[in-house]
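To whoever is on call:

I kicked off a structure prediction for a single chain this morning and the downstream step that reads the tokens threw a length-mismatch warning. I double-checked the sequence; it's 278 residues and nothing unusual in it as far as I can see. Pasting both halves so you can look.
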Amino acid sequence: MEQLSGSQNESSSAGSHNNPSSLNPTIPHCLYLQQGMGGIYTFPTDFLDPQSTNLLHATAIGTTGCMSCVGVYIPIDDNRCFAAHIDASIYKPYERNMSVWQIPDNLGPSLRNVVRGMLESTFKGKEHEVKSIQQRQDLKDRAIIVCFWPTVGQQSGPGPHVIDTLCEYFHLDQKKLIGANAVHHGFIVDHFDKLSQRTRLLGWTRPGPSPQVLDEIAKLADNCTTRPWGDNFRSIFQTTYEYVMPSTLGCQRIGKEQEARPWVFGYDYSQGAWGVRE
């Protein structure tokens, strides 16, 4: 649900109320995952700075704006990780409001199946790596999952279905993971720092919104007809809440704007099926 989060705007400058590690040494660059991006990433990774043509060296990865979306990072070994910004919604071309992120009970199992299918496709031929994650507690201890609007208007959003599938697939302790990260919208993690001293869990400059507050903001946006619903939601939300972003912490986002986005799923009632919506 990044399109509602304002996460593309990193101009805000502030502290980090929900970011206790913000006083740790700065991570200068991070490979940034936009909504729908994800896969297996190898570090270190280099990118040309489009502003200066200098070669930027990154050992960190991150994402932001995970409202009903799910942000995930799972180390595979010393040089690789699986990370993604996963979204799912109901395709309603004439009804763009919070209902598109309310997953009916009858569509939950099929959403989990499509997420699991993408995981199996991503790790095809790498079953040994999956088994390693399942069996190594040190890797699972470093895993991160964020999603701070799991219940949308008293109806399950895509988050719980995605999280259940991830935890089942990798044998993760869901209660431990979500309990620690429920108030964050994103993260920056240095893959080479096994002690997680340079991990940033990104929140807001004040205590973050509860799912109930987000529901109320969504209802206010429902009553606005002058602009697209997402613009109204974002405008109301940002009146009260200011994001802590990578740039707030002195970290430059790098990455490929045109990278494929296989982790955005949409359900089309006319087709009766979930599909990838790039």
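Update from on-call: the warning came from a stale cache, not from the record. Cleared it. Sanity check on the structure: Residues 90 and 100 are 5 Å apart (CA to CA).
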